[in-house]
Design brief:
about 260 residues, 8 helices, 7 strands
Length: about 260
């Protein structure tokens, strides 16, 4: 498949690694012009350069979305570079430590997680949604949530922020739908790398009904489906689990 997003202009956050990198690469391959953003300027710039070598048009913006004004600054930077924005994919999320449990997480760690996932996610969606309405763009917005928006993982700051993102997505979808703007989410399963890890990876893999861990490309392919009107023009306000069937069972026991 090539060219399904030709003519689109997209902002992808968290693009320096993992799912964000996979999504950015997919959107460029399908013809979109990109601004990619990440707090890691070195790795983000490298990803942008790699994508640029494929012939795509891409700019990198360093952005720490844990800062209160970062969402508005990133929106303004992306608009300057792209002119109009027709796609937002919010993949950014702070690294999560398995030791940050319900009994140990600190206010600082809580605030960082909720600031990036929830606060910046919402205000990016709001700013770009307003922009799409004014420009009369039938845009698409996609959030990366989590299976743990519904099933606790004993990482309360992470699970709570992803649950909030799920409702945030629905609120934006409801208000933007009359303008022809679709808003959806993907809940990835076990995708090694980035912030995900488990103590016994072999045992976890055996619990996945499809028999393997997911890859960033698995998520990027579903992102393409949800961002392309050819495949999903009548889909908004929904979360699609891309998890190999792992949500069919309780796979992450709580720890004390």
């Amino acid at each position: 498949m090539e060219g399904f997003l030709r003519g689109d202009t997209a902002l992808v956050t968290g693009a320096a690694s993992g799912i964000g990198r996979g999504v950015a690469t997919m959107l460029a391959r399908e013809g979109a012009r990109l601004v990619v953003a990440d707090v890691d300027a070195e790795r983000g710039g490298t990803v942008a350069a790699e994508i640029r070598r494929t012939g795509a048009t891409v700019d990198f913006v360093a952005s720490d979305l844990s800062r209160p004004d970062a969402a508005s600054q990133l929106f303004e930077a992306a608009q300057r570079k792209l002119g109009r924005i027709s796609v937002l994919v919010h993949c950014a999320s702070p690294y999560r430590r398995e030791t940050d449990t319900a009994l140990t997480v600190t206010p600082e760690i809580w605030d960082q997680m909720t600031s990036v996932n929830l606060r910046s996610g919402f205000f990016l969606g709001q700013s770009i949604g307003r922009h799409m309405c004014t420009a009369k763009v039938k845009g698409r917005i996609l959030f990366m949530t989590s299976l743990h928006a519904e099933v606790p993982r004993n990482l309360p700051h992470y699970s709570a922020s992803k649950a909030g993102m799920t409702m945030m997505m629905k609120e934006l979808a409801r208000v933007l739908a009359p303008h022809g703007i679709r808003v959806n989410a993907i809940a990835p399963g076990a995708i090694p790398g980035g912030g995900f890890k488990s103590g016994d990876m072999d045992a976890l893999q055996r619990q996945i009904p499809l028999g393997r861990f997911g890859t960033p490309e698995d998520i990027a392919q579903m992102a393409l489906v949800l961002l392309c009107d050819r495949f999903s023009a009548y889909v908004t306000g929904t979360t699609v689990a891309v998890d190999g069937g792992i949500a069919l069972q309780s796979w992450m026991p709580a720890r004390e």
